[in-house]
Amino acid sequence: MLNLKPPYYAVIFSSQRTEGDHGYEEMADEMVKLASEQAGFLGVESSRDENGFGITISYCIMVCQLLLIHLNIRSIANL
């Protein structure tokens, strides 16, 4: 667990995996890479259960940049 001092924003993303990877793992890695390169990025935590439901929380000082990255990834992945 990250030990962060306020103020900061948390961008929360949930997903339900289906059979097969379909490039998900690569896209998730790319999203974290892009987010970590942004000014104000503080860290990321992720968890997934045995049924494929997952939650990723990205912490930052500037929420708009992470939201734009997420929307860009979604459009590339056609989700």
TrEMBL record:
Transmembrane segments: 52-73
Keywords from the named record: Membrane, Transmembrane, Transmembrane helix
The name this protein goes by in its record: Uncharacterized protein
